[in-house]
Design goal:
- The chain is globular, with a radius of gyration of 22 Å.
- The longest helix is centred in the last third of the chain and has 24 residues.
- The chain is built from twelve helices and 16 strands.
- It folds into two domains: 76 residues, 2-Layer Sandwich (GMP Synthetase, Chain A, domain 3), CATH 3.30.300; 253 residues, P-loop containing nucleotide triphosphate hydrolases (Rossmann fold, 3-Layer(aba) Sandwich), CATH 3.40.50.
- By secondary structure, the protein is an alpha/beta fold.
- Helix 7 links the parallel strand 13 and strand 14.
- Bound molecules: adenosine-5'-triphosphate and magnesium ion.
């Protein structure tokens, strides 16, 4: 008997997306089912190319379809279409699907380092990634990407971002004249953040990561008010003071209706260069505890590694300079989880509404 498309879809209903907690058929991920002489081919379109369980889902699809009587071969193509964040009528960056801000309470906890490495990690999955440096106190991204002396040019009245390591980058630093000291005041900050969004030719992006200055000043406020954000990542170190102020920053974003996507802990563990065992260096509140307190996901913990600051200081993201060290694996893992939660965030508002089901993930904020 000929194998039908309905049979294949029925079998694929057994495959669940672990983050969205629905089967891939209900989620509308299965496309282009073709059957020919026992050979079955179809596409699974995920919500992010950075999906951390892409290989597992592919294997499950192959297993359940192979088990159908008469199937001799299964060809699964995995693709991705990043969902769009909720937009507003006159969105400043309508072609940018997801905007994720990286924030912290305290300064120096590693926001910029985390932002740069996550941007490169996402770009390595095939996603189109932008990086906006909105740190009014000390824009550091051009240094970290090794292009402090570059100057972006303008085309058709728009500023063209600088391409580095597969990432389109624009920094507030480029908008300042050399050596210009700026006493930032609220309206100026808001104007500059607006300029970084609207006057830059970001093109079609899957993810725009925004590196914020520490705290809850004008830049985070302006950003959250100017565009609907997918959400905010909070970076913290395991010191009570850092966690405490991070909690305050989180509360601000919640008040501004920007969902919190999760907590990244940085510099908590030192990995022994000989045996690879992690040693916790500080006794303060961990990232995991902070995430639990805020009732948001814990995205991961980047170890303290001298290679990170060494490579960063010479303008190479550590994920590229030292791809075999534990920090690189952790950045990739965090990028995958972040992309998954960003999908959940958009799905819970749009597609799950379409499916007619209650959201699986109640956004905080
Ligand atoms: N996991 C790590 N291991 C070693 N060094 C790190 C790590 N994370 C960050 N650093 C170093 O710590 C310093 C501060 O990091 P970074 O500039 O990313 O922090 P920040 O939160 O962006 O700071 P600011 O609040 O000033 O913007 C840098 O020199 C960076 O290279
Ligand atoms: Mg910084």
């Amino acid at each position: 008997m000929a194998i039908t498309e309905a049979q294949i879809l029925d079998a694929l209903r057994a495959v669940q997306d672990p983050d969205l907690r629905r089967d891939i058929v209900t989620l509308g991920f299965v496309k282009d089912v073709k059957v020919c002489d026992g050979i079955v081919a179809f596409t699974v379109e995920l919500t992010t190319p950075a999906c951390p369980v892409k290989d597992q889902l592919k294997a499950e699809c192959e297993d359940v379809v192979s088990a159908i009587d008469g199937v001799s071969q299964v060809v699964v193509e995995m693709t991705a279409q990043v969902r769009t964040r909720p937009s507003q009528q006159q969105d400043l960056v309508p072609q940018v699907k997801q905007i994720i801000a990286i924030a912290s309470g305290k300064g120096g906890v590693g926001k910029s380092t985390v932002t740069v490495n996550l941007a490169v990690a996402l770009a390595q999955t095939g996603a189109r990634v932008g990086l906006m440096d909105a740190d009014v106190y000390g824009p550091s991204i051009p240094l970290m990407l090794g292009c402090p002396d570059d100057r972006p040019f303008t085309r058709d009245g728009k500023i063209v971002p600088i391409e580095k390591d597969g990432v389109a980058m624009m920094s507030l630093g480029f908008l300042l004249e050399e050596g210009q000291a700026v006493l930032w005041r609220g309206p100026m900050v808001a104007g500059t953040v607006r300029q970084l969004l609207a006057d830059v030719d970001w093109g079609d992006l899957d993810y725009l990561l925004v590196d914020l200055p520490p705290g809850t000043g004008d830049a985070p406020m302006s950003l959250a008010q100017l565009v609907p954000l997918t959400g905010v990542v909070i970076v913290t170190t395991p010191h009570n003071v850092a966690a405490n102020i991070a909690g305050k920053a989180a509360a601000l974003f919640q008040r501004l209706n920007a969902p919190l996507l999760g907590v990244v802990e940085n510099m908590a563990n030192l990995i022994c260069p000989n045996c690879g065992e992690p040693t916790r260096l500080f006794a303060g509140m961990s990232g995991e505890e902070l995430a639990a307190q805020l009732k948001i996901p814990f995205l991961g913990s980047v170890p303290l590694d001298p290679a990170i600051s060494e490579s960063s200081d010479r303008g190479v993201p550590s994920i590229l300079a030292h791809p075999d060290r534990p920090q690189a694996a952790e950045f990739h893992r965090i990028a995958g989880r972040l992309a998954a939660y960003a999908s959940v965030q958009s799905m819970s508002r749009q597609d799950l509404h379409r499916i007619g089901d209650a959201p699986v993930f109640e956004p905080v904020g």
